[in-house]
Write a structure and sequence with these properties.
15% strand, alpha/beta, 14 helices, Rossmann fold, four-stranded parallel sheet, homodimer, elongated, 434 Repressor (Amino-terminal Domain), 3 domains
Chain lengths: 347, 347
Amino acid sequence: MAKKRPTRATSHDVARLAGVSQAAVSRAFSAGSSISKDKRERVLKAAHELHYVPNKLASSLSTARSNMVAVIVGNLNNPFYSESLQAFVTGFQESGRQVLAFSVTDAADGDEVVQQAVYYPVDAIVVTAAPLSSKLLKISAGLGIPIVMFNRHLDSNRIAGVHCDNRGAGARIAEAMHSAGAERFLIVRGDPEGSTSRDRVEGFRTYLLARGVPPTGIEEIDGASSYGASRDSLRARFRAGDRPRPDAIYAVSDIMALGCLDALRTDLGLRVPGDVMLAGSDGIRQGRLSAYDLTTIRQPIEQMVATTLQMLESAEDLKNPDMIQVLELPGEFIPGSTVPRPPRDKP
Amino acid sequence: MAKKRPTRATSHDVARLAGVSQAAVSRAFSAGSSISKDKRERVLKAAHELHYVPNKLASSLSTARSNMVAVIVGNLNNPFYSESLQAFVTGFQESGRQVLAFSVTDAADGDEVVQQAVYYPVDAIVVTAAPLSSKLLKISAGLGIPIVMFNRHLDSNRIAGVHCDNRGAGARIAEAMHSAGAERFLIVRGDPEGSTSRDRVEGFRTYLLARGVPPTGIEEIDGASSYGASRDSLRARFRAGDRPRPDAIYAVSDIMALGCLDALRTDLGLRVPGDVMLAGSDGIRQGRLSAYDLTTIRQPIEQMVATTLQMLESAEDLKNPDMIQVLELPGEFIPGSTVPRPPRDKP
């Protein structure tokens, strides 16, 4: 049914029209190549006439690079994922690569989506969401397509990747709350299968238990990694009158923390941090808006993307099990206004 | 330097190992094809052993479709663009297409970025930002790559596209403010070169002038399409004591309106809408958060993406000047709490 697309002009066509060799056409389109001004102009004129543009993919057949990288992101309603996707698009574009974007909304689909990705001639796959099955790892290894994990890791460390120090993030939030006098803690957790939520919860708990907080002083509810679910579940918890209320809430991601903040202030009429303190993690832009000014740990997204790029540039290392790197970068504590700040030490 | 990627197994390799014809391999991977269960299983087993996956691009050589669509987005710090990108990624993926993302931060780079896009074997280019030069239109026409404009349009209507009724959006905001009793209006404009800001400003002005508001009652300042610039420039305007203050502010995009709202409440200590009313346009998620609850006009992003898809599916029409469609969809008025609502008519 569909008509065939008009054939692209080839470098051969351009060479013939310009009266030069095919190699000269190639040089005319390569920055810094040695070619006379006159010849370059003839090539460009012919190329223009024939609507010729050098096809990066065609030229990649010899270098085995397409300059396309598949980036698999999670639910884009979470600003952390949309901000990560932005950072990939802009960061990769600067290095001459383009992002072929794949979205996984349901964890169960992850495997299927990553398999879709290998259908395309991508140089590499960056996985920011989705569990990785061993079957998939076999396919990509067989095809020689390297995989880098972003913001998550396997316990085995068999896959290269970069993530934030999430245990450290949880511990740092616990420290800020504990030193501000909190005694009854509530964790609003995200996806229990994901390493990010798990590590943050663990870091938070471990810090508090080590400071003598009894296990009964640390409650946990589910925020399902979303604004709405967190808002609903925190409101329900506070309206349940049978238990003492927590005085400090750690929502393990900012988008959940914003849901909690709106539940506390708007739905329950409570003051934050006056009545209850609250913090998140990720450092998304929404949390930085004046109306929220959320206390949080910022993930160094730009640095994480730059690190991912470096890993892709030494792609051969990614195929060598002895060279696989799993980097953990520190997050940055952002003292917002939702956890009381310690009185400043006088110099 | 870089080693060559291991060669992908071909359907020929799979056919040989499975002891079937190449056509059988193709049928085994096509949903609904007629092939015996036994044969299909042999093919899948062989494919698995050889790490073979059907290469969509290779198969697209015959159908002239790659199932990749270049989407060129503007500054991703504006949530409208990141939400649009999300809608494209998820909407296109559902239809079996993947988004190859390009970002244009500086309007001047637009032309160059779109030219990058044609280097890839994309089926089409969706332009949500970036001016389109006639040179570029020639190249894409010559290559038979259709272009669809999203959220902007040329006065000539020579390029297919879909956008929101932005004049209508500006007029609807003007109506809400005028009927709430506003008398002195301030417009915070975005990119004066973009059709979106221009049309919204025009719709707003035209409505008010027709209602007898004098031209001197409509002031205009520049918000440079960003949160920070709008916040700064509104604060400066309100601190300049030499002119009467406006009582109604229309920031032509939500991200600018949020900057204005934080300037008014946080920096200037004013009540919104008590001291001054404010509205935006776009309907971004941040504006819907309880702490802002911005009065706005929501662009029907999902519907606009679906319309773009329909246009791409009748790609032949896009090449026929007589069939070019430029669709304008109505926005939805979202009565937030930043413009006083009219008293409800009693039934």
